[in-house]
Amino acid sequence: MEPSVAFAADSPPLSVIAAARVAGVALSTDPSLPSGSDPVLRLASGETLQGTNSLLRYIAQFAALPNFYGQDAFEAEQINKWLEFSSTFLSGSEFENACAHVDGHLTFRTLLVGFNLSIADIAIWSALAGSTGQRWESLRKSKKYQNLVRWFNSILTEHGDALNEVTAAYVGKRGLGKLPAGNTKGIVSSGSSKETNVHSLPKENAGGFEVDLPGAKVGEVCLRFAPEPSGYLHIGHSKAALLNKYFAERYQGRLIIRFDDTNPSKESNEFVDSLLKDIETLGIKFEKVTYTSDYFEDLMKMAEKLILEGKAYVDDTPREQMQKERMDGIESRCRNNSVDVNLALWKEMIAGSERGLQCCVRGKLDMQDPNKSLRDPVYYRCNLVSHHRIGSKYKVYPTYDFACPYVDSIEGITHALRSSEYHDRNAQYYRILEDMGVRNVQIYEFSRLNMVYTLLSKRKLLWFVQNGKVDGWDDPRFPTVQGIVRRGLKVEALVQFILQQGASKNLNLMEWDKLWTINKKIIDPICPRHTAVLEERRIILILENGPEKPFVRILPRHKKYEPAGQKATTYTKRIWLDYADASSIAEGEEVTLMDWGNAIVKEIKKEDGIITQLVGVLHPEGSVKTTKLKLTWLPEIEELVHLALVEFDYLIKKKKLEEGEEFLDNLNPCTRWEIPALGDANMRNLKRGEIIQLERKGYYRCDVPFLRPSKPIVLFAIPDGRQQAS
Residue 676's beta-bridge partner residues? Predict the structure, then answer.
């Protein structure tokens, strides 16, 4: 006897029935429960389960699909959160906010969790398909939520027979029908053939990618993100990291994290650890971590091979003279040294001798080529500094230009993503691969990300750290990933921002306001609301008919997002107002006290023209619609907490520094300031990293939570895209 699901005829559990149908789990239906009942699963053993989410989790255990409830505990927890979130679509007022939230999440993802269809996808999909009044169908035809529509359509394409059957039976006579012409072509699911060529994949819509990876095949793509461990990951690096992640997921390929550790003078384990932390913060999943230093022996053998073949030589020309000769196309006097002389000098370099320290290995390419990167580039140089991984084993180290193409080829990289600033060196990359005689790798270019009022040079950022101008590499004024996340940026916003630029090769100077505007759209629908009053010159309003004894009401922290939780609001006869609000009130004016009701201000007391106190009465019969001023307030109670509201500005004064312009001449003298404030008592429970909105003041991220009454909670102001923001 197969299990059956009983439910009220007017509210069928669409997600449960759809999940069973898609997953190949036999399930009969019984629409006999009274209206308003939760669905009940009746098992052959006589046992029952109740509630949509419990039923979905049960079905997932017997699904023919892989990882229908996630591949591990972490994914299962993420799926549970989406199951809870799916109920948000039932609220008419919250429907579009929920759509926007899921749309943002899907910007960089094919599915909600992991790489397989899960009950989370079915739950959200069913919530959309079953929405009342055809709300989703009208949005689906528009261009408002393009990532969400792409995801919805791809699931319908892969499981159309099952889903149309269910929706026809429980939503409408015709189901959801076919996709619009042109939308079904080549949408690849987790079960699609690995031989599918890149050209059968759908191109992204406007604002996304316009060009596919050339020659790529689903399941056969291998990419690498190769930062140098000499600093923290910044917003420019994150574009490269996220593009690699995007293409790896899109083509169901592999992604390797490789540390390009070829310069021991600048690198350290601290930077390796911080980069791995940043990569995790960006949500990047990778197959493995490698190091260029893993291949030092092989690279040295390759250098010697090229010397033996006459494709490289050892040069002791002084550095400045060498640079001038390269610019002028003049061959080095060492270029035609014999192989024996080159090998002898190479051994001196390996030994780190005084003679060896005068030398470097150069590729013998073409000193007359108009592309100066081909004018005998340096392959190896001496460095006696101890390496952070392997100590003092080596005295010679390969350059990035030499090591990168070799390791790319050896590790099986199919596509090397590089910013267009390296364009002139692409020919060098291919020539070195050819001379080495190793497998070819396809370069794919994208434009470097440049931001206004922002320095991305590691050397310049290091100056701020070393001179105490910032608190460290994670300072909120810094463009590092840790800095902007600490400022209050959600990674989803960064992903959307980068994908809106796509893989364009055009160099653009981007505005921070665009990024913060995207961030606001993500945090506003879900972040809790709290209240603060600035400490300076705050004013007491005495409500003559206010409560003689304080009382408490439990209110939602976000009126339109129930998962934000609840807060306790205390109502008292004496309340605090911001001085700016008090000074905007006219005597006899009726105002609205938010989350309470209307009040009439009868008297404004002043001393020397400065307001000292307001006196008024509550007017519960008053209409919110008739008042001009809607004021935030705090009760006069001891439980209020002290806040430090921290504002930031750009580190430099100019949008863009011209080439050769000194950044030290353009430093902004004041880039951080604090404003003391009082906050509602509920803020004692804020956790570090939690994002809130202070009503009528803006968005903030909690950097230092409540420790004791004498120490303020530190809140970092988050730009909303309408104001200057660093």
Answer: 644
Q: How far is CA 188 from CA 202, 219, 225, 358, in A?
A: 9, 11, 25, 56
Low-confidence ranges of the chain (pLDDT < 70): 1, 92, 132-134, 172-212, 502-507, 723-726
Handedness of CA 337, 338, 341, 345 (dihedral sign): positive
Distance CA 289, CA 291 (A): 7
DSSP 371-411: SGGGS--EEEEE--SPBTTTBTS-SEEE-HHHHHHHHHHHT
438-464: string of b/e by CB count within 10 Å (b at 16+)? beebebbbbbbbebebbbbeeeebeeb
d(CA 152, CA 146): 10
Q: What is the pLDDT of residue 364?
A: 97
Residues 6+ apart with CB under 8 A from 108: 242, 245, 246, 249, 283, 492, 495, 496, 499
Cα 47 to Cα 684: distance, rounded to the nearest angstrom? 44
3-state DSSP percent of the chain in helix, strand and coil, to 5: 35, 20, 40
| Residue-level pLDDT at 133 | 56
CB 484 within 8 A of CB 512: no
The residues, any chain, with a CB within 8 Å of residue 220's CB and separated by 6 or more, are 194, 251, 253, 414
pLDDT at 2: 74
How far apart (Å, rounded) are the C-alpha atoms in residues 503 and 510? 15
The residue behind tokens 């906050």 is 679
Please give the backbone phi and psi of residue 52, each rounded to the nearest 5 degrees, phi first. Answer: -55, -50
Beta bridge partners of 633: none
Mapping DSSP onto H, E and C, the string for 152-216 reads HHHHHHHCHHHHHHHHHHHCCCCCCCCCCCCCCCCCCCCCCCCCCEHHHCCCCCCCCCCCCCCCC
pLDDT tens, position by position, 581-618 = 999 999 999 999 999 999 999 999 999 999 999 999 99
Cβ partners under 8 Å of residue 275, min gap 6: 227, 229, 232, 233, 259
CA–CA distance, 119 with 79 (Å, rounded to integer): 7
pLDDT reported for residue 362: 98
Q: Which two structure tokens, joined as six digits, stand for 422?
A: 């390296």
Residue carrying the six token digits 């409540």: 706
Q: What pLDDT is stored for residue 203 in this prediction? A: 39
